[in-house]
Every structure is written in structure tokens, then in C-alpha cells.
Give the backbone structure.
Amino acid sequence: MNNIGLLIILYFVLYFFIRKIRRSIKLSFEKLEELNGEFIYTFLKNFSKKEMYFNLEEVHSLFFTQMIVKNGSFGNLTVYIILEDEYAVKLQKKENIITFFKSCKENKPEMYEKFLESTPMGIDISAIMDKEIEDYKNSGK
């Protein structure tokens, strides 16, 4: 009985370890490239690299699923972008999210304002997002 209990504990530790490694691998493969409101989203799905092309005209809605604000900037941020054809794009890297919002602000300001107003619990993040976009522009990316 002791050996079975030890094997079960070892199985759970190994399972959570592999799950954590897989998530970090997925994050390292997430990339969003933008040119005049058109995007190429590259991500890892089931250990194969996938690409998705979309533009701002196809974006139907946006949901913030995780938002942590630290010292006037975003610590963690996760966004789901729902496209008109029912596809969903999940952005987890802060750099990719800032790239998306920067493009919205430059190419479709009314969409940018609409998305910022849709933040959960009525939180006003427009000043934080504007600061993050300026920092991103000044970093030369």
C-alpha cells in the first residue's frame, strides 16, 4: 500500500511539473506581428506551430480574463480576442497585448476606446494602457 501511495504522489508531482513546462513553452512561442491593422499570430498548438491571420475589421469583441496592475503598470494581463468567424485568439504576453492595443489606437481609435471601456468591474485602465503604449514606442520595438 505504501508503494502505491508513493507512486500516486509521484504521478501528481510529475503531472503538474509537465503541465508547468508545457505552459511556459506555449508562452515562448506566442508572437503577434502587426502592420497597419493586420496581424499574424503565431502560436503552439499540440506541439505544432500554427499561424493565424486577421485584421482589425474582423475583431468582434475582446475580453480581459486576467489583469494585475502593479505600480501603475500591468503585471499580468491576458486577453481573448473574438473574431467575426467565431475564432478566438488568446494573448498572454504583455508585449503582444500592447502591440494589439497600439494598433487599435492608431488605426481604429473608436474600437480602442470601446475595448478599454469593456474592462471588468468598470476599472479605468486608459491611462495605464496609454503609458504602456508610450513605453513600448520609446523602447524602439
